[in-house]
Every structure is written in C-alpha cells, then in structure tokens.
Amino acid sequence: MSDSQPSQDREPILQVRNLVKHFPLTQGIVFRKQVGAVKAVDGISFDLYPGETLGIVGESGCGKSTVAKLLMNLEQATSGEVFFKGEDITKLSGRALKAVRRNIQMVFQDPYTSLNPRMTVGDIIGEPFDIHPEVAPKGDRRKRVRDLLDVVGLNPEYINRYPHQFSGGQRQRIGIARGLALNPEIIICDEPVSALDVSVQAQVINLMAKLQDEFGLSYIFIAHDLSIVRHISDRVGVMYLGRMAEIGTDEAIYEHPTHPYTQALLSAVPVPDPEAREHRERIILTGDVPSPANPPSGCRFRTRCWKAQARCAEETPLLAIPQVFAGQDTPAAHESACHFAAETAAVV
Ligand SMILES: Nc1ncnc2c1ncn2[C@@H]1O[C@H](COP(=O)(O)OP(=O)(O)OP(=O)(O)O)[C@@H](O)[C@H]1O
Ligand SMILES: [Mg+2]
After folding, report:
1. What is the 4 CA–ligand 1 centroid distance (Å)?
2. Which of 161, 179, 178, 170 minimizes the C-alpha distance to 125?
C-alpha cells in the first residue's frame, strides 16, 4: 500500500464503465442454439487511481477473473468501456492494443501451472521482450532478466533453472518479475497468493507493496476474502454475482460497511483481539449463490439477505453514495448498492 492516500482529485489511470460480459449458453451439437447466457460480469463501474491498490473481493464465480481479463482485453466485452488514460481499450486492436497492453500486466493465481515447465526462468521472464523488443534490445535481455530477478529477491544466478526447482513463493516471485518486465503502470493480480502457504503469503504481499512504492505501480488485487486484501488495499470493491455491491476506502469497507453482503463477509474474517471478537456479531449466510445464468431480479443478494423486502425484488439498487456520506466532501469514498445503505450508514 502506498503511504499517501489515493488522491481523488487526480485523474484516474483506469476508468471502468458499465462493463458487461455474457457468455452464451448453447444447446445442441450440430445446430448450436443459444439458450441463455452466463452473466459473469453485468454492469461494473469503478476507477483506479495512479499509485493505489484497489482490492476486489467476492465469492468463487462472482466474476473477478472475468473482470481481470476484460481489463487486459483478453476477453472481448459484451458492452461497456475501459478507459486507460482516457482511451477506450475495448475498441482497440492491432498495434494500438499492443501498445496499451504493455502498460497493463497480470500476475496469475497459481504459480505451479502458470509457468511453462519446459522454459528456463530466464526465458520465462524475458518472453515479453519477444513481443516488445523495443523495451530490451537482444543484447540487453540477459542483463534485464538478472536485474528483474534481483528486484524480486531471487538470486540472478538462478537464471538457467527451471520452475520445478523453485518453491511456490519463489515461483510467484518469478511470475511477478515477468509481470514487471515491460515496465507496466498497472498490474492486475488475480489471487496471487491464494495457492501459497500463509507464511509465504505475507512475504509475497510485502514484496508487492515494496515494488509498488519503488516503481509507482497501480494494482488491482483480486482475492476471495477481505482479510488478504486489507493490508495492501487503499480501496476495496466487493463483488456479488457479476455486480459491485460496495466500494470504498479501506476505512469505509472495514469500519463502516453498509451493504449486508460486505457485513457478512467481514463477520467471517478472523479477529485477533478476544474482546473485539466477543462483541462482534457473526453473520452466517444461508443458501447458495444463485446461478449467474439466472440471477434474482432486483438486488442480486436479496435471496440471502436478512434485510430484504418486497422492494428489493422489484428495484435494482444502484451503486450510490449512502446519504449520510453524501453531505461530506468525499464523493468517491464510499458507494453501496443497497436500498437501505443510508439507514445502515447512520448506525455503523
Ligand atoms: N469462458 C467461459 N465460458 C463460459 N462461462 C464462463 C467462462 N469464464 C467464466 N465463466 C463463468 O462466469 C462466471 C464468473 O467466472 P470467474 O472465473 O470470472 O469468477 P471468479 O470470481 O474469478 O471465481 P473464482 O474465485 O473461482 O476464481 C462463472 O459462473 C464462470 O463459470
Ligand atoms: Mg478467478
């Protein structure tokens, strides 16, 4: 996490507007008939500011990885826009897309499967230079790769080793070095530590925080639960069934959550202080996450929400600033897609 709070008056580096990705569901082998769609991402908007970390959390299948792929233009959006420094990258192709992609890199979840086992570490980290030779001319590559190994805390002498010769944490460092190779401005980390032991998770997160300061990177940090992103995020967005339920600063989300789903997720986060633990209400969510092919009408969370009323089935709550906060001078600080967010904000 960068020391300075993200300055909301600066221009965002990334602006995501009404992003939608529907995967068609088809039936039949010869005549493939579309019988519906998996609404993996269904109208998501958020900003990312230079130098900040935006955590994105939510249960399995809520669309986090699909958002990540859309931001890199690895999946084509069904509709919506992603502006990188004001330019809509969902409309780009060819050379223009390639130029933008250089600036947005990804670190993947599983360091065991995301690194090609037949390539040396040097070739893995240097591979992006094949696509962007202008970043490191042929003669400079080995030196650049050695520098990158050093930057992520690995011995540059390991350059000729293969992935299986490294531990999980070391492999993720290799993935990070590769992500850094092209000097990107944004790194999208899709559950970068979920496959690692808890003790190693902290080391990798600390490394990422250090690299962020050193290179002025902006991060989107995806995770399943709120405890992992807490220490690295400046702001956090909570996703549910293809939509953003709540987004806000660290303090807003962890201290004053106004969406019942965020409150439920938070209540599952372990609290080290026994006294605080005693006073905390544990919210157990009942029922399964509905299918993204057939989401509930209105508020998608209503089928599992203890506050749900008739209105929640009829009216879709928009991601809006809770009234209580609206009078304060923090427009982008906290938005919650719940009809009762303002009432909740008055008491939390
Ligand atoms: N290529 C695809 N074709 C069809 N459906 C897909 C495709 N990719 C993802 N989906 C579906 O879209 C929904 C969102 O998937 P996604 O992988 O984005 O979720 P996620 O939040 O990253 O989950 P996890 O936490 O398990 O990684 C899921 O229902 C998934 O089955
Ligand atoms: Mg995922």
Report:
1. 34
2. 178
